[in-house]
Amino acid sequence: MKKIRVVSRIDIKNEYAIKGIHLEGLRKIGDPNEMALDYYKNGIDEIVLMDAVAALYDRNSLKDVIEKATQDIFIPITVGGGIRLLEDIQDILNAGADKVAINTQAIKDPSFITEASKKFGSQCIVASVVAKQVGENSWEAYVDNAREPTGVDVLEWVKRVEELGAGEIMLTSIDKEGTKRGFDIKLNKAVSELTTLPIISSGGAGSCEDVIELCKSADIDAVALASILHYKISTIDDIKQTLLKNGIEVRADA
Amino acid sequence: MSERLEAYYGLPQEVKFCKKCVISNQRPSSTVEFKNSKENKKEVINFDENGVCSACSYHEEKEKSVNWEEREKKLEELLSKFRRTDGGYDVIIPGSGGKDSAFTAHILKYKYNMNPLTVTWAPHLYTDIGWKNMQEWMHTGGLDNMLYTPNGKLHRLLTKLSFENMLHPFQPFIVGQKIIGPLMAQKFGVKLVMYGENQAEYGNRVDQNTHSVMNPEFFSISDPLEMQFGGVSMSEIIDNYDFTINDFTPYIPPKLESLMESKIEMHYLGYYLQWDPQECYYYAVENTGFQANSERTEGSYSKYSSIDDKIDPFHYFTTLIKFGIGRATYDASQEVRNEKITREEASYLVKKYDTEFPKKFFKEFLDYVSLTEDEFWEIVDKHRSPHIWKKDADEWRLRHSVNNDGYDD
Amino acid sequence: MPNITIIDYGLGNIRSLKNAFEHLGINSALSRDKAVILNSDAIILPGVGAFGHAMDILKEYDLVSTISEFALSGKPLLGICLGMQLLFDESEEFGMTKGLGLIEGRVRKLQNVHKLPHIGWSRLYKNIKSEKTILDGLNDKAEFYFIHTYAVGTDDAYILSSSKYDNAEFCSSVKKDNIYGCQFHPEKSGKFGLKILENFINIAREVKI
């Protein structure tokens, strides 16, 4: 029985946690460290911290947040947003994070994934793929926090990132992100059929049923939840209990 | 710099930037467009003795002193005066289905129980996303709409003239857009017109904000033939081109006397409810099926601000040419005031995007105004004020920028 | 309080380990200095990434003999993730590479699985006696965080616990005398992971006395 990881995704701008829709909009919703700690104490399996404006301002500024988070939180932490150099990855890992999510730089220069996974180990390297549907069965990859199209086909790209040496894929649907209307099932299904890398699905969860639908329709390995948790639509416990009741295994509180 | 440079349009000689946001003192205030000609000295945004622009001062004042509960009560009082429950419309809401009008119309109908008719002055050329959002506004948002599209032949000519003579291609559009609210109110026997945001927030004179009713000067005229389009009077256009006064129907505003007789009132929702364009975006997505554009707007960083007209980017390009400030400056300044971004971040965005040329719809624009690329650049370059631009070898460079990296900085 | 040193050779999330120990009241040292290591009451060998690469670095920093010497002292040593794999004789990763050889056994790729690496939470199925080991007093249902592509094959006598992933069953923790290893990340496994580290601290304390 496959076990699904329940992950919380927190987008950050400076010292604020923010939440957009379709990755647009910077509505402040709280203190990222407080939120992360709260989710940790309530049984979340993993935390993803994304710098929502790193690409916009050509900087990365999550160091403080990461350091604080890793002091009190003892579950895996993945950090992404604006990672351009091997030094950036080193800094983030030194601050206590376990994995880094890379998008823009990887598309600009795919060899970056290979270099990074050679140096830090492929399990540290998550390929962040941000997808927008452009055809019945095709999606285009976007970069710069969904601000710029690239002309790159997502289904081709996910095959490539595996070859390049990534250890995991985080797949975000621009169309569904922040809408609380469910995941992009088609996208997740298509991608999961093309790669043997574990997949974290991000974008669209608005209810427990959305998560169940995704887990039953696509061979993904983790669900990244944002709006549903940040706007307190559902609790982590509710979600996990509902998943268990519906035959989906999760890490339960012992 | 001892050389005294000519400043076109009567703009302030010295270029300064607001200490709080990133707007410059060259930003023009709204004018009565059909009285606007090239020779007019432009009224610009005011800067106080601390170098802070009036939009920021107004915003601060608003933050500190406005009692929003009281204002909402006033809104409810106002609306109850006009609310109908017999099947007739009771408020006209001009807008395009963008985030601001989407918010205004939906909230008035579904929270405040009014019966709005939204009216749209058609964009020059709808973008796909603009059309989609317009439709969603109706279908998902649950609203009624009248789409008013002016005679394209004339509209294109007026746009062309405005572009050539004043580098202001949006002038005819602005005329029509301002008129359509009261015009439709008259036609439908509705006495209330509700706009969204108050332009004064962005830099008109502060005294224009103290009254919630719109300035009647904006829509009254004694003799239509004297109306100016691109600096050319209607009678001249009629004489030189194949049009009659009847072709100008969409641009002739209702007479002030008849509006007053009909007791039509015009208000800004932004006076009664705390206005946050970003929150309008969220509201519109959640309630009216609004979708941001899939890519960033050229000349700025935003994906959801005015995305429905292919000609729109050229409006901002011409503000860059005439006043040295582009779309990023406008968008970023407003976000600084609303505390979404810091001034430092705004400056960075200006540096990154402000001077970007909108090439996506360039060909459509040239076709629309019947100009060649060379003619386009000739006209553009003619309008670069020497006190703002310097030609450096083959490149035009801004003399001043908010990042202090202009040619003269 | 026992003094614990985390071997800092550039691989592995040592900051999280240090934070975890701090959370448990121990100010651990981060070092690759021979004297510091040998003088410690207990050491941790972390590790993430490729086996061969890690061994090269350990050799470069002259840590191979240091760690072996420490192992002989009888004081507790805990290898985590790749650190656990390094304790063994050799690994198949990128052709046969020799490890530290402190415990007999070999590192092999996980078999019969659809996706790799294994990333996720799994229970520990206890094998040999767990009292007074790092698994002492642990709730049977407790789950731990794993992220690995390879796993250890060794003598049953050393297997402290095994775990399951997809169709594979693999060794998740080991004990040989004073040498411990966990394939999972105790510093990333929430409160139960901290319990594992707490047990390790207690073992160190006992030995110290």
Give descriptors for this structure.
heterotrimer, A: 254 residues, alpha/beta, TIM Barrel, eight-stranded parallel beta barrel, 13 strands, C: alpha/beta, Rossmann fold, eight-stranded mixed beta sheet, four-stranded mixed beta sheet, 6 helices, 29% helix
Question: If you had to describe this structure to a student in words, what would you say it looks like?
Answer:
The complex is a heterotrimer of chains A (254), B (409) and C (209). Chain A has helices spanning 32-41, 54-57, 63-72, 86-94, 104-108, 111-120, 154-164, 185-192, 208-217, 227-230, 236-245, and strands at 3-13, 16-21, 24-30, 46-51, 77-80, 99-102, 125-135, 138-143, 148-153, 168-173, 199-202, 222-225, 249-250. With 254 residues, chain A is an alpha/beta fold. Chain A has one domain (3-250): Aldolase class I (TIM Barrel). In chain A, strands 1-4-5-6-7-10-11-12 form an eight-stranded parallel β-barrel, surrounded by five helices. In chain A, helix 1 packs parallel to helix 3 and helix 9 (208-217) packs across helix 11. Chain B has a domain at 65-272: Rossmann fold. Chain B has helices at 54-65, 68-82, 99-110, 128-139, 152-166, 171-188, 234-240, 256-261, 269-272, 277-288, 312-323, 327-337, 343-353, 362-368, 373-382, and strands spanning 91-94, 116-121, 144-148, 192-195, 228-229, 232-233, 265-268, 389-392, 395-398. In chain B, helix 3 links the parallel strand 1 (91-94) and strand 2 (116-121). In chain B, helix 3 crosses helix 10 (277-288) and helix 12 runs antiparallel to helix 13 (343-353). The model of chain C has no long low-confidence stretch (mean pLDDT 95). The longest helix of chain C is centred in the last third of the chain and has 19 residues, at 190-208. In chain C, strands 2-1-3-4-14-13-12-9 form an eight-stranded mixed β-sheet. Chain C starts with a strand and ends with a helix. Chain C has helices spanning 14-23, 34-39, 51-60, 63-72, 82-86, 190-208, and strands at 4-7, 29-31, 42-45, 77-80, 90-91, 97-98, 105-109, 118-123, 125-126, 143-148, 150-154, 159-165, 168-176, 179-182. Chain C is built from six helices and 14 strands. Chains in contact: A-B, A-C. The interface between A and C is large, with 33 and 39 residues.
